Structures are given as C-alpha cells and as structure tokens.
Amino acid sequence: MNKKQKIYNKLLELVKEENVKVDEMLRDHLYTKLGGKADFFITPTSYEEIQNVVKLSNEDNIPFTLLGNGSNLIIKDGGIRGIVINLKHLDAIYSEGNTVVAQSGARIIDASRYALDKKLSGLEFACGIPGTVGGALYMNAGAYGGEIKDVLDYAYVVDKHGNLVKRLAAELDLDYRTSNISANGDIVVEATFQLKPAKYEDIKEVMDDLTFKRESKQPLEYPSCGSVFKRPPGYFAGKLIQDSNLQGTNIGGAEVSKKHAGFIINKDNATTSDYISLIEHVQKTVKDKFGVDLEREVRIIGDDKD
C-alpha cells in the first residue's frame, strides 16, 4: 500500500467517504475558477472532524491548507500538496439577541442579509463581499467604510494543535486587510458579530445603495479575485492602474478590467500563470510610471505546474 492510499484510509476513519476527494480540481470550487489539483480535498461537517484532521496532519507530518471559496485567493496551476480543508458544509447562521453567529463556511453576504431580516445593523458594508465568513475574518474584509473588526465580538477557532479555542476580536490583530489568524495556524470555525437594532427599511436602504454602487462599478459578470491590490498610502490602486493605461491589457485569458481597473478578470479560461504574469506587469508598469509599489491584497499559494 503506497503512502497516498494510507493517508486516504486514515482520512476515511475521520470523515465520511463522500467528503473525502482525491486529486480534486480546485478550480471547480473557487470563485476565480483558477487552480490545479489538491491531493486530498476534505469537506468536514463538524468541528470535531476538523480537529481530528488537524491532529492527523500533525502526527503524520502532512501539510494542510484551509480553503474558503477563493474570492481573494489565487492557486497556482500545479495545485496544492497534502490536505485541503474546505468548510462549505459549515454554513449555519443564527442570532442571539443583538448578535449574529455565523459558521465560517457561510458567505458573509448571507450573514449580512440575515442581519437585515433580524433588523440588526452593522453588517451592511458586507452585503457585496463575495467571500466566506472565515475568509472575511482572515483578511479583516471591508468595503465602503466598514470592516470586520468594527463588528466582530469573538470567534471560535481550531488551533494548530487541534484544540477548539475562543478568540476575542482584540486577540486577532485585525488591521487593514490582515490578521494574525494565519500566523497562529488557526482555522476559524465560527464568528459572533455584535450588532445594533435598527429599522428594516433603514438597513435595506443602505444595502441597496451599496449593492447598486458595486454592481455598477465592478465586473461581476466575470470570475475574478476582487480587488487585486491594497490601497497604497496617499493613492488609489485602481486610479494608478487606470492612469497607466492598463485597462483592457491581457495576458492569455486574464485581463485588467475595463470596468474597474483594480480588478483582473478571468475573461477566457485564464491559467494562474496568466494571472500572476499580468499582476506583475501591472506592478512594474505602475512602479515605472509613478514610483509607487502596489502590494497585493490577493494571496497566491500552491505549486507551479511541472
């Protein structure tokens, strides 16, 4: 029995067979529609299963990667070795008083809409963010003047040892599009947001306005990873890219959006290599023209294709 078969057999002892896939194409699970294969693709249905997979990974020295829906992630064409965990089955959302509790596999958009239904204000800014709750915490997602750190009370995580631990928002070092979640080796499994009662009509008016702004300005008709670059101090990334005459520039199937210069879209079956090459071209062009370094907001992980 080879090593891969042994790992598969051990995983079947921890997770239901239908939730363990071998050599699964990651592009089929990602918002960007990019990425190669995962050796093992696991979709747990309980916190205990996550804990057990993390412990197996530690005991057998198997690398593991947590994956949301990839709305702010680019996976290389060679895929990811070891175990990839996706929490799409953990997507429950409920409320307790003025708080909304959402599991990490739920979409942050859905948490925002749920809050609206419960007449709770504070998550309006998230009504157009395509990522999961876990991903939103990971990068302290934000839009239109709001961000996760404004409303997060606490989260439950599975730590790098496989323990289920409560983390207060203040312990996560939430800052502009960053946190310490990855550095600590934590897997967010649940988040509690502290919100405020408000009128349904007032909350909906704000959400409708933000949705209109997003739909009118962003290229939602194509797969993308959202805003590719962080906002450089004193500038706007999209404006710099636009002023560099880069809109419409393409490499392979990847293109700098003509609708919003801050987006790179998967226009025609782009590969990750196309995407990365175009990102680097944009960075170099803006640096040469304006002397400004554009730092990526989107993460790039995985192996290069052989």
TrEMBL record:
GO BP annotations of the record are: cell division; cell wall organization; peptidoglycan biosynthetic process; regulation of cell shape
Entry GO CC: cytosol
Source domain of life is: Bacteria
Q: Which reaction does it catalyse?
A: UDP-N-acetyl-alpha-D-muramate + NADP(+) = UDP-N-acetyl-3-O-(1-carboxyvinyl)-alpha-D-glucosamine + NADPH + H(+)
Tell me where in or outside the cell this protein is found.
Answer: Cytoplasm
FAD-binding PCMH-type domain segment(s): 34-198
- Gene3D superfamilies for the chain: 3.30.465.10, UDP-N-acetylenolpyruvoylglucosamine reductase, C-terminal domain (3.90.78.10), Uridine Diphospho-n-acetylenolpyruvylglucosamine Reductase, domain 2 (3.30.43.10)
This protein's pathway reads: Cell wall biogenesis; peptidoglycan biosynthesis
Active-site annotation: 177, 227 (proton donor), 297
The reply to whether rRNA processing figures as a keyword in the UniProt entry is: no
UniProt keywords, alphabetically: Cell cycle, Cell division, Cell shape, Cell wall biogenesis/degradation, Cytoplasm, FAD, Flavoprotein, NADP, Oxidoreductase, Peptidoglycan synthesis
Q: Which GO terms describe its molecular function?
A: FAD binding; UDP-N-acetylmuramate dehydrogenase activity
Quote the EC number: 1.3.1.98
Enumerate the cofactors the protein uses.
FAD
Pfam families named among the record's database cross-references: FAD_binding_4, MurB_C
Name where it mostly resides.
cytoplasm
| InterPro entries for this protein | FAD-bd_PCMH, FAD-bd_PCMH-like_sf, FAD-bd_PCMH_sub1, FAD-bd_PCMH_sub2, MurB, MurB_C, MurB_C_sf, Oxid_FAD_bind_N
Q: Which family does it belong to?
A: Belongs to the MurB family.
Function noted in UniProt: Cell wall formation.
- Recorded protein name is UDP-N-acetylenolpyruvoylglucosamine reductase
Q: What organism, scientifically named, is this protein from?
A: Halobacillus trueperi
The gene it comes from is murB
